[in-house]
Amino acid sequence: MVCSGSGLCSVFGGTSVAYPIFAGMVTLLNQYLGGTGLGNINPTLYSLAATPSNGAFHSAVSTPAALTVGSNGAYCTPGTPSNQPVALRCPSGGFLGFDASNFDATTGYNLVTGLGSVDANALAIAWAAGRAPSTIAVQSSSGSVILGRTVTLTATVSPGPGIIRNETGTVTFTTDNPSNTTLGTATLTSVSNGVATFTWTPTASQVGTNNINASYAGDGYNAPAATTTPAIVDVVSPDFTLTNTTASNPTVLAGQTTGPVYSFTVTPGNGETTFAATVTFSCSSFTPTDPTLTSSSCTFNPTSIPAGTNGVGGVPVTINLATAGPNQNIGSPTRQIRRRADNRLPWLPLTLPLAGVVMVGFAGRKLSKYSVVASLCLALALAGFLVACGSSSHPITVAVAGPGSVFPNNAADSWPNQTAQFAATLTNDSGNKGVTWTASAGSIDATGLFTAPTVGASSPVTITATSVADTSKTGTASIALKPTTVPGSYGITVTVTEAQTNHNLTPAPTVTVQ
Q: Is the pTM of this model over 0.90?
């Protein structure tokens, strides 16, 4: 009944009102139960209505004595609304409803009133609680699987007693390795007849024993369920074998990259014909250790073997090793030869008198003999004055220049000689006496040509130029020794890895560096 502000009321009822309201309730009920569909709901509605204590329905009544808040009708004021036909006015008893005197005592249902008005929330709770119990079992297609391969997990849901329709809904598969990890979900449908399957590819963290469980979310007629007995699946790391195919170990000059240091083949293990996971390679250590030899010094061909590669007969692999040193261009030793600053002749002090002589020559025919002699004497006197002033008024300074780095030498003489040219610049060096040279390591000759020390010397090396005219005046420069692989025989630990399986090459590869 709907009343306006003017006191006019209208009564709404009938199927056209009740049907869409109840349809909305059923839609919400379906969502509450998992959204898998409910089908013919009448049998379940009847069974719920037979238990009034669940509060799902407010039963119809037939006598005024039974009129309560939960009656199937509505309280009203007798005779209202007065402007409506008598049939639509509130009866004298003050209750507008239906006569249910012939209702079934067991179900509370009759053809006139149905089951009564619906409490949607109580209906949903009662429906969920009244679902039949179900059971679920899980199986694996194999009790053992190699990491990288797949295994099929199957969950079978059995309905509770008296439920003949197939289960619908979702099954979730989990493992205890690591703890309570969800592997994935699968959907039950009527087509699968209560069976859900899931294809599982184990990860590296699941190597070992896995207890696989499955849980069923339930549907409109079957309650949720979980396995009581897990399926046990052992995940095994893939394995492989290594075969040495090296003919001999190489010798290389420091600074060169070897040809193949070592060659070998990798073959899948466990009876497999392809690799289950990617195979990788690394040089994990060198014996003895050398700062220029690290994992990045090794180059593998191929760089890795992808998962799924056919390994029948073995996949061939080679290793190249890069060393550090001066022998990249072994046939062309480089010597940096530069003009020494301290060996320059004293051209500047002689420039003026020589210029004067030249000028006199040009003008000789026009000047008298006395004028020429006087000009020459004046030029010589001026030159002497300049030299004297320079030597007496300003201190000597020494500046040294040269390259910043050089490779060391090898005592075995198999390398090109490693040298570097240094030059000294002096100012106010009276008599142009030059410098003497010294080096904190290696050697340096009178011309400033530095010969590097042998491998292992301390770096950097200090080069010193000392003024001959004043030994208290010096200049210095430093030169770094480039990192070089120390000559010797090296063992290489080569590690091959597939998933969680590691093997080292045996015998260990060796290379001789000279």
A: no
